[in-house]
Specification:
Layout lengths: L7 E5 L6 E7 L11 E2 L2 E2 L1 H10 L9 H8 L5 H4 L22 H4 L9 H6 L24 E6 L2 E6 L8 H14 L8 E5 L2 E7 L6 E5 H5 L10 H12 L4 H14 L11 E5 L5 E4 L15 H6 L12 H5 L16 H9 L4 H4 L2 H23 L27
Helix pairs in contact: 6-12, 12-14
The chain binds adenosine-5'-triphosphate and magnesium ion.
The site of adenosine-5'-triphosphate has 25 residues, from strand 6.
């Protein structure tokens, strides 16, 4: 089902959550973008790929222990225990003849159980049975996370990776930078639980909308080897009628350069659409910018920047920055306090336990250096840069893989 629309009848394996058979196709246009129709039904292999991507990845921090507590052998089995409902899109499964409706069971209007979130955060098995009705079963991403209803608002609470646990603070720093650049983004705050930091952000999807990750958009057309990943993405947006990808990408790639983001894969940005009319509503506010600012590196590596990787279009930030066609929108005067801001956020009480002084100055110095470089490029005083060449495939990223954490 797609909210109220019947899409496809299929057979699921409840032990693995895998789609065993796809049957009658009721609405091809409501299929997830990028799933082709073959012989009158949805391509089962590609539908399974999308469906599995929608479950908790096997590489999620702490998932092995959590599965053991739940008595399950894989995360796919969780999908069928909450009707596949999510807080990021509007797809779900309606068991045949159950009479269930989206209005009756969706997680936007109805509360959900804390059981699965508790287990994902390390709780022991409860004496009574676990209540599996939770959007945590369909949450993507490798960092430990859970959905919580805080003061009536659905919020995503997400941890950081060892040893520095920097991601929650990085999310706040990235939010502050994007506020200064007037870039639509999701604001994050930091909360503490059992001595560890977590980021908190509100759900940007509503009962009427949904997030279509850029990865789905990329899969709507076959890419020709001679076309760059960047150009391919723009072509897909144009064909689908998604407006203004270039100004959006200019802003996202610029922020990612400033914070040296290492994990902007194609599931870490996307487009919002109306889940009933399928109308595109524009790019989603920027989220998940935490794996940046040398989050897993030592101060010397942060200063040299040599081992910093880049996604989603180019392997190196300097190359990816060349895809930005316009820097004139940046008000550099508003960025002057950013190095101090970074120092303040990373040396706040609690954060200082994870992030040492040497590290903080390496981070804020390297951000200051990258902002200076951008300013020089913008004013034309940087060493001559060849103009952006969106068509060049040189240094292109070849696979869409998220960073994995210990
Ligand atoms: N505020 C939000 N509202 C709705 N959906 C969200 C929100 N934030 C994240 N999501 C969805 O949840 C997924 C996981 O969140 P996020 O990307 O922040 O986690 P992560 O563990 O940092 O991911 P990664 O594996 O990329 O490091 C996102 O890919 C997106 O689909
Ligand atoms: Mg992510």
């Amino acid at each position: 089902m797609h909210k109220h629309t019947r899409v496809l009848s299929m057979e699921l394996d409840s032990a693995t959550g895998l789609i065993r058979k796809t049957d009658v196709l009721y609405s091809a246009e409501h299929l997830p973008p990028g799933i082709p129709v073959r012989h009158g039904t949805a391509d089962r292999g590609l539908l399974n790929e999308w469906w599995t991507d929608r479950s908790i990845p096997a590489s999620r921090s702490g998932i092995r222990e959590a599965l053991e507590t739940m008595g399950l052998s894989n995360t796919g089995a969780l999908l069928v225990r909450c009707y596949g409902l999510s807080l990021s899109d509007q797809y779900w499964i309606c068991p045949e003849d159950s009479g269930l409706t989206w209005d009756r069971i969706n997680f936007f209007d109805h509360d959900f159980s804390d059981d699965i979130g508790d287990v994902l955060f390390g709780a022991e098995k409860k004496a009574d049975r676990l209540d599996f009705s939770s959007p945590d079963n369909t949450s993507d991403g490798n960092l430990k996370k859970r959905w919580k209803i805080l003061d009536g608002t659905r919020c995503l609470v997400k941890g950081g990776s060892n040893p520095f646990r920097q991601q929650p603070f990085n999310e706040v720093i990235a939010s502050e930078i994007m506020t200064r650049l007037d870039i639509p983004h999701i604001p994050y705050t930091v909360t503490w639980s059992k001595g560890a930091p977590y980021s908190v952000c509100e759900n940007f999807v509503t009962r009427d909308t949904e997030l279509i990750p850029a990865w789905r958009i990329l899969r709507t057309q076959k890419k020709n080897n001679s076309v760059s990943v960047y150009q391919h993405f723009i072509n897909c947006c144009e064909t689908l009628g998604i407006n203004d990808p270039v100004p959006f990408l200019d802003r996202m790639l610029t922020v990612d350069y400033i914070i040296a983001n290492e994990d902007r894969h194609f599931n870490n940005f996307g487009v919002l659409r109306d889940a009933e009319t399928l109308r595109w509503l524009g790019f989603a506010p920027i989220y998940d910018s935490g794996s940046s600012l040398g989050y897993d590196k030592m101060p010397a590596q942060i200063r040299s920047g040599k081992e910093v990787v880049c996604k989603p279009f180019k392997n190196h930030h300097e190359e990816q920055l060349r895809l930005v066609s316009d820097l004139s929108w940046i008000d550099f005067d508003r960025l002057t306090d950013v190095p101090d801001l970074i120092t303040d956020i990373l040396s706040a009480d609690g954060a200082d336990e994870y992030v040492g002084k040497d590290r903080i100055s390496a981070i804020s110095d390297s951000v200051a250096r990258r902002i200076q470089k951008l300013a020089a490029m913008s004013s034309g005083t940087a060493p001559a840069q060849a103009g952006p060449d969106p068509a060049s495939t040189s240094d292109d990223v070849e696979t869409n893989i998220a960073a994995k954490y210990n």
